User: Fold these one by one.
Assistant:
Number 1:
Amino acid sequence: MLVYANSFVLQPEGGCHSIIQSIAAWVGDKRSFPVDPVKLASGIRELKFTDGAAVSSRATVDANGDPHYPYYFCARLTHGQEGVPGRRWITEIGLKQDTYDAPVKCSVLLETSEVSAKVVAPIQVTRPRIVQTLIEKCRPASDTPSLSVLQLTEHNAAGFAYGIEHRSRRYPLILISGNRDGIFPILPERLRSLTVGLAQVVEIPHEADTFKMQAMLGRRYISFGGAINIIFPPRVSGDGLFCKTVLLRPDRIEELASAGTTAEAEVMATITHFTNLPNSWQHTSSDIVGQAILAKRLEKAVSEAAASGDVSIYEELLQEAAEKMLSKDDQIQSLREDLEEAGARLDYAEAQTDALKHALSGVQSRTSDPSDQISETVAPLREVLRTALNQTPTLEQAVRLIGGLYSDRIIVLDCAYASARDSDRSGFVHGYRALQLLRTLAEEYWEALTSGSGDQKARAAFGNAFAAKEAETLSKGGRDARTFRYMGRDMLMEKHLKIGIKDSFAETLRVHFEWLPEEQKIVIGHCGKHLNF
């Protein structure tokens, strides 16, 4: 059974020699018997240890042990499992280097082999220690996932949202949050060391404003209250691009502990279930090294046959054999692509099923107590709603209420919340009027635009409170003040809603926004004082 597969790029100062030295030291430490790295690099048919374990290796080297490029190498360690007769663990470390000074592509594969179906002892997914050793000693490429733990807060959530569904992302994201006491289900640094090369660990600090982050990221891409959310790479299928997610809630983590397993094991099992197959295709296995050795021998034989004029038939046969090998490689690649496409369709179907289940569960009545997550999300909205009903909301409360209730229509940038907060500090007195304007923006105005009525008809909902642009020509500073960054691009927002004309934080309001027809959303960049021209 395939347990773990990983692939990453290394750039050690000593090239492949440094990596093989680390592999030899790792095998020696595990078996308490020294392994010669020079012999390992040249190829070992089989070296057996007293406990029944064995190590072997293959490499594309010449008669002097010098590497042929592209250079292929694979070391294979097999050993039994204490207390489980009939099972052997197999670890392979593969290397491929195109030229002497090129980066080294390293792959690690861990699998088990059972003598029969009678061997049923459970297997706990683990990361081979050699992975951490190579990451620590052999200079991994800077784009290797989880070289460090990333932090996600309300200040960088907008950029993070863009990266989640970016087509170039090839690895899962693991969002891990602390509970109300700031305690994580797994220490983020520990999780990073387990998933390095496989997935990127993202820590959400206890003090982060998860309510604001959810408004920016959406419910599917957030984690709070001690939950772990795994977001897999985007795939294109069916109606468009989507990212499969797996959420481990605190109650599920408690169930795992009661069943005798750990959150670590569950996260690793979930990650590897989706990454093992594609990563195994990148693995430089012992068989692949054997094929490379054979290809070198065929190449040499063809060259020698061509040099002797009377054995042309052997040259043709050898050339045909080489071409068949390449043809098989092409067929294998085609089958892999077909399998990936089928997997994408399956994931999309599962995602649709999950969405339907979620929608159904929302319709059905439930009598269970609300979870911590629901309480954390709803409580701030309840407080704002109470003040709104009393017609005494602050400007920031009004913005947060509309941003929360209409998150599928309205995107409120951080700078808009900040400007509202500044007005509140100066005693803004028109909170309820602002709430009414923002509600009209999210309802009548948005509905008119999405129905195709056009901006001219949509703005009629505001009367004199709407302006398509400023009354005066803007200076460079004025344009800069009305330019806001959203999803990696700068947007000039001249459209605005207005209350009052005085130069006063307390009595004047300007809400600058822009309509994004491709997303069917309104982005608010400023909600506060009158900006300078």
Note: The chain has three domains: 2-137, 150-260, 372-528.
Number 2:
Amino acid sequence: MRLGGLALGLAFGIGLLVGVPGDAQVKIPPDFSFEKGKDSPGPVTFSHEKHKEKAEKCTACHTKVFKMKKGTSGTITLAALKEGKFCGACHDGKTQVGGVVAFAVDDKANCEKCHKK
């Protein structure tokens, strides 16, 4: 019995030193681009790194707003964004993320923040 307690204590101590598998840092995916849509002013390059600086957890967007696999969440349109879907879930000019209000996607002054020519 004493040996079992020692083994359990040792396993717990090693677990604290090594860490729990679920605690591993997720590698931030590289930037990727959305092609220019039919009525779009230009393509959009999305940066996970910039968004991770504001939203502390990946689960802020995944899987509530976006599915994990690229291209499976549906078609992103300005109308959908204005309805609060996709990027519009936060980028509504009201929602605070990381202590800062996310700019509104429907304000023409903000188009070039995402759309590059």
Note: The mean pLDDT is 82.
